[in-house]
Amino acid sequence: MVSISKVDSDKNNNFLERQLKTLGKKIRIDILKKLKVAHNHFSFSKLQKEVLEHNFSSVNFSFHLNALKKCELIDSSEEGYYITKLGKQILNNILSIEQILTDRSKTRMIRTSKYSKELFDSNKIEEYLVVEGELDVFLARQIAREVEERLAKTNIEYLTAPLMREYINAILLENGLEEVRHKLTRLGTPPYEVFKLFNSKEKEMTPEKFIKRLGSDVSEQFLLLNLLPKNLADLYLTGEIALLHLNYWSLRPLSIYLNTDSVIKYILKNKSNVSNNFEKTEDSIKIILGFCDFLNKFKRFYSEDLLLGDFNNHFLTNLNLPANKSYIIDLLTSQMLSFNESFNDGQSHLSLGFNNTQSPTNASILTDQPVTQILYSFIEKSVKNNGPLLLFGYSDFVAQNSTRDILNDLFSHSLKNNVILQDNGFLNLQNSTIIKILDPKQNKIILDKILINLHMISVEAKQNDDTFIELLQDKMESIFKLFNFKKNLVNKKLSTVNDWIKIIPQVFGEKEDCIIKDSIKSISFFGLNKAILNHCGIELDRTETSTSFALNILSFMKKLIEEKNELENEYYTLTQPHNDKYLQDCWNNGISHSGHNIYYYSSKIIRENSTLSLVKKISLFKKFENILNGGSIFDQSINANDISLNNYLKMLIDSKINAFSLSNFENYVRN
C-alpha cells in the first residue's frame, strides 16, 4: 500500500518539475519581475509594452502569460494581470539564485592601505580579526561571513581598505564587540582637517611642519586609544589632567639635566679632532661646533628641554676670548639660537645654568668677560624669547657700578623673559617646566610632568573637605599609574634606538636600563585659585581659611608623594604649576575636550589681580614654596613706576625667596 506521504511527495515533485520547465524562459521571469513591483494590475497591452518594449511581433506574448497562469504564478481579473502569492515566493528564490551566480562571477577588488590592489578574500578578514582584534576564531569567522554577505548586497565593485574597516567596525558594534572595534580603529586625521591644514595661510606652516602635525595627530590617537587603559586616557580627554607633549608622550622623556662637565668630556672622548687645549682659537671653534653637534643629536631624547648646569665654569671660561675675537661667542649664541628655533614652537628647549662659586665672594658673575659677552650676544641676536633659559644666582644681579650697564640692557630687552634668578646659584637649577634639580653634579632624566585639574575636583566635591581629599587621592593614584605606563613605554621605545644605547651610558656613567627607572617624576596642578574660590567661596589670598585649605591640599599631595617614594624607592616630586601659555598650547589648542576654554586657569599661586601689598605677596608665596619641593618662581606683575628695579631686586633677595623672574617687571626703561 502506497503511503499518503509518498503520494504527496510525488505530487510536489511533478509540480516542481512543471514550475521549473515553465520558468525556463527568460521572458517569463521578466513578466514576474514587472508584476512584482507594480502598484496596480497591468492590462495586457501595458504589460506587453513594459516587457517587450517595441518587439511585439517577435514574441507570442499570450502564450507565455497562459503558461504562467497554468502554473498559478500569475492571475488576471477585469482590472488586468497580477502576480500571485506563490509567484512572489518563487520569484524571491529565483532572485537569490541570481545573486549567488552574480557574486560568483563578479571580481571584487580591494585597494589596500599599502597602495596596492588585490582580490577580495573573506579569509583575510577572519585573519585580521584574529590577529589584530584578538578575536576568537569561531566568532571571527562569523563576522567575516556577515561582512561578505552585506557586501554582496551592494553594487560596490572597487573597495578601499578604510571602507572595509567601516563595514567590519559597524558589524562589530552591532554584535556588542566594542573593545574589539576599539583595537581596530584606524588612526589618522579626517580629510576635512587635513584640507584645512593644507590650505592654511599660516606663514609658518612649512611642508615639514605640515607632515609633523599630521604625524603628531596619529601618535596622540595611538596613545589615547591603544597604549593607555581607557580609564587613564579618559582623565586627559575629560580635562581632569593635563599631559605635556602628548605626541611624544610614549616615545621619550620630558627633559634631561646634564652637568656641562659631562658633556665636554663626552665631546673630547668622541671627537678626535677636538682638543682640550682651548688656548687656540681653532680649538675653541671646534669645541663649539662639537657642542652644537651634541645638542642636535641629543634633542631626539627629550620633548621639553635640556638643562646644562655649571655652563660657564665648564665651557665658557675655557674658551679663548680675546677682545678682538668676539665672533667666537657670536658663533656659539647663533648656533644655540638656531638650535632652539629648529623646534618651531617658540618655547625654550635649552636651559643654561651659571655658577658663581669659583668667583670671589664679593664679585658678581656679570663681571666675568665670557658671561658678559654671551649675554650681550644674546641681547643682540635674540628675537622675543626664542633663546635658551638663563639661570643665575640672584645675588649677582644686585646693581653695582660694574654691572649696572648690563642690567639696564638686559631688563630693557625681551631677553629678560628668559632669565630666572635663584638663591644659592646653581644649587636650585630649574628647567622650563619648573622642576628643581637638587644635585648639580648628578645627571638626571626628568621623565615627565603631569598636572591635576584641582578646579574639576572642587566642582565634584561640592564644598565637602573630606570628599575633596578623597577625590584628590584617587587622582594621585591614577597619576602614579600613568607614570608607570610612561616609564615602560619610553624604556621599550628607547631601548631599540642605537644612539640612545651608545650615548646615554657614556654621558650618565651608568647602565642604560637604570636611567629611566631612577628618573625624576614631577606631579603638578592647575586651577588652584579657581578650586579655592569654588570650594571656600573666596580667593586663597583673601582669608586665612582659604589660604589654609590651599596649603592643606598641596601638603596632602606632598605627603602622598613622600610615602610613595619611601615605599617604592622612587623619585616623585611636587612642582610649581606650569605657565599659562604652555598649558594652553599643549592641551588641545586651548580648548578642553569637554568644550570649555581652559585658558582662564592661571598657573600663578597668587592671582594677578590680588590687592595684597608686595611684602604680603612675597610672604604668602614663601608659604607655598616651602611645600613645593620641585621648585617655584615668584613672577608677579610689578610696575617700574611704583618701585625701581634695584629696590625690587633688593626686596626679593632680602626675602630669601627661592627663585624669581622679572619677566613681568613692566614699563622698565634703561636708566
Helix fraction bin: 40-55%
Q: Distance between the terminal alpha carbons, to the nearest Å?
A: 129 Å
In total, the number of strands is 19
Structural class: alpha/beta
Can you tell me the residue ranges where pLDDT is under 50 for at least 5 consecutive residues? 585-599
Q: What can be said about the biggest beta sheet?
A: 10 strands, mixed
Globular, elongated, flat, extended or rod-shaped: what is the shape?
elongated
Calculate the mean pLDDT score and round it: 81
Compute the number of structural domains: 5
Total number of helices: 27
Roughly what fraction of the amino acids lie in strands? 5-15%
Rg is 38 Å
Describe the structure.
With 671 residues, the protein is an alpha/beta fold. The chain has 5 domains: 4-105, Orthogonal Bundle (Arc Repressor Mutant, subunit A); 109-183, no CATH class; 230-253 and 447-601, no CATH class; 255-430, no CATH class; 604-671, no CATH class. Helix content is 51%, strand content 11%. The strands form 5 sheets. Strands 6, 7, 8, 9, 10, 11, 14, 15, 16 and 18 form a 10-stranded mixed beta sheet that branches. The protein is elongated, with a radius of gyration of 38 Å. The model is unreliable at 585-599 (pLDDT under 50).
In short:
This protein is α/β, with parallel strands linked by helices. Helix content is 51%, strand content 11%.
Helix and strand layout, with pairings?
Blueprint: H1 4-22, H2 26-37, H3 44-52, H4 61-70, E1 74-77, E2 80-83, H5 85-105, E3 109-111, E4 117-119, H6 122-131, H7 137-152, E5 158-160, H8 161-174, H9 178-183, H10 191-198, H11 207-227, H12 230-237, E6 241-243, E7 255-259, H13 260-270, H14 281-298, E8 306-309, H15 311-314, H16 327-341, E9 350-353, H17 369-381, E10 389-393, H18 404-411, E11 419-422, E12 429-430, E13 436-437, E14 444-453, H19 454-461, H20 465-494, H21 498-508, H22 512-517, E15 520-526, H23 528-536, H24 544-568, E16 572-574, H25 580-586, H26 614-625, E17 638-639, H27 645-654, E18 659-661, E19 665-666
Parallel strand pairs: 3-5, 7-8, 8-9, 9-10, 10-11, 14-15, 15-16, 17-19
Antiparallel strand pairs: 1-2, 3-4, 6-14, 7-14, 11-18, 12-13
Helix pairs in contact: 2-3, 6-7, 7-8, 13-14, 14-16, 16-17, 19-20, 19-23, 20-24, 23-24
